[in-house]
Amino acid sequence: MSLYLGLDSSTQSLSAMVIDTATRAIVFEASVNFSEAFPEYGTQSGTLRSDDPAVVHAPPLMWVEALEAVLLQVKDGVDVSQIKAVSGSGQQHGSVYLKSFPELDASQSLKSQLAGCFSRETSPIWMDSSTSKQCEEIREALGGMQATTEATGSNTFERFTGPQIRKFYQEEPEAYAETKHIALVSSFMASLLTGKPVGIDPGDGAGMNLMDIQAKQWHASALEATAEDLGSKLPPLSPSHTVAGNIASYFVEKYGFDPGCKSIVWTGDNPSSVIGLGLVAPGMTAISLGTSDTLFGSMGKCATDPNGEGHVFGSPAGDYMTLICFKNGSLAREAILNQYGLGWEGFSKSLDETPAGNHGALMLPWFEPEIVPHVLTPGVHRQNLDESDAAANCRAVVEAQMMSMKLHSEWMGEAPTKIFVTGGASANEQILQVMADVFDCPVHRFESTNSAALGAALRAAHAAGAGEWSDLIHGFTDPVAGSEILPKHEHAAIYRDKVKAYQVFEQAMR
Predict the structure, then answer these.
(1) Where do the domains of the chain lie, and which CATH numbers do they carry?
(2) What is d(CA 157, CA 131) in angstroms, rounded to the nearest whole number?
């Protein structure tokens, strides 16, 4: 057997996946829901809420307990001694603050050994939006939005770790002063497995507004703009394939891991999902059609969004990846479906009955404030589109979403060569045909259950020398057989012109 363990510490749960690279199979999966398993922490869906809705934290000690709980399930499910390497992913942007890191003793629980080690008992996570002031201060210090984006890969965002650290430094200076180690969720969990503080990889480090996106090293000016003496509190940045060491003896003695099992640096959940979706070469793109639509793309060379709306992270495959989130995804599709009293069958029929280009009709389906483009005031805007025409409005919302994705990803400089699509709406062939036509490239449906954990397991295998990326992903990230949808090139020509008209309309209404 060639077993590798991937872990994913998400917002609500800690999941485990064991793969066998010899048989190309997922041999075991387990998950621990934080709020259900540990109600004593008082979390809601894994989060701690306060009177201020902008403040959202989580207790890191809960994650420690969850690691023990999920490893017990792994021990019961597979021969743990056969696991050659372990890696993982963590919810991006969350930060952990430690006064010290203990020498792990297998005669005691992890919880009892970590309980007194935190200089900050709770961790701000990606849902926290309380740092607008700090975002503005860091952005101004770095020379504005475009300069910040070019330097760190993203504009400053409230959920990013740098602004969160700055807020802690400003509001709790004594606790900040006694902090020796600042970790991300990913590097904290990897440190537990290794038995010592380990580095942050460029995939997760890029989500901090602290990393030089080109050099993949800490950005001196960003550190200085964030907090005093910050560089001494952060671990080094380490490539995603870094072997942090052998797994700590604690896990050998308590769970039966082989002493030679390698502990690999972790990454963020989004970079890990890029691997779990098989996006290991430039030009490979995945689109998740969920409540919000998300575009993940792989880039050979680093390019940043001049509008500061998209994000660039280091890719665990070695190059770069982008993440662009469009809030009005299924939210908008379902709003149109409900407005006209259609089921999905009727929605699909409407797409079949209307022509590519929709006779020039345009819609901006901003039912909620939009992330990309940045639109604070919601509203549905129509041009050359009769609101009473149900079929035309169905096509208009889908065309708008696909043209927006194409338009707002062009800054990457690499047109997609192949798109893997997942999420609930990926079952709709008519929607995927519009996607293929607008992007003028093949679309493949991908059934993803836990791409972050799968990506973590594949990363463990890659770092341990089990094979090159192109070989490792085979059998694990293959698209659904027979799901390929090819573009109709006569339609692609129509959309090349229509994207320009959409851009003019969008700019006029923002």
Answers:
(1) 3-271 (3.30.420.40), 278-447+480-510 (3.30.420.40)
(2) 8
Q: Where are the alpha helices (DSSP H) in 195-245?
A: 202-205, 220-226
What's 223's DSSP letter? H
pLDDT of residue 133: 98
- List Cβ neighbours of 80 (8 Å cut-off, separation of 6 or more): 74, 255, 256, 257
Q: What is the DSSP string of 424-473?
A: GGGG-HHHHHHHHHHHTS-EEE---S-HHHHHHHHHHHHHTTS--HHHHT
* Nearest residue to 499 (alpha-carbon basis) of 401, 395, 420: 401
Q: How far apart are CA 12 and CA 393, in angstroms?
A: 36
- pLDDT attached to residue 446: 85
Q: Taking each helix axis from N to C terminus, what angle separates 390-407 and 330-339, rounded to the nearest 10 degrees?
A: 170
Torsions phi, psi of 72, nearest 5? -65, -40
The structure tokens listed for 287 are 């689109």
- Over 80: is that where the pLDDT of 449 sits? no
Q: H or E element: which one contains 362?
A: strand 362-366
pLDDT at 370 exceeding the cut of 80 = yes
Q: Which residue has the tokens 């996106």?
A: 213
Q: What is the DSSP letter of 156?
A: -
Q: Give 282-337 pLDDT, tens digit per residue.
A: 989 999 998 899 999 899 999 999 999 999 999 999 999 999 999 999 999 999 99
In sequence order, which residues have a C-beta less than 8 Å from that of residue 143 and are 6 or more positions away?
none
- Tokens 């869906």 belong to 45
What is the signed CA dihedral for 238, 242, 246, 251, rounded to 10 degrees?
70
Token pair listed for 441:
């490239």
Angstrom distance (rounded) from CA 403 to CA 286: 15
Whole-number CA gyration radius for the chain: 23
Residues 6+ apart with CB under 8 A from 376: 369
Reduce the DSSP state of residue 413 to 3 states and report it.
coil
Residue that has been written with the tokens 């990506």 in this structure: 455
Give the 3-state secondary structure of residue 357.
coil
Contact assessment for residue 33 and residue 158, using Cβ atoms and an 8 Å cutoff: no
Model's pTM, two decimal places? 0.91
Of 376 and 347, the structure prediction assigns the larger pLDDT to 347
Give residue 366's Cα distance to chain centre: 23
Tell me the three state secondary structure of residue 83: strand
Nearest Cα to Cα of residue 274 among 308, 240, 244: 240
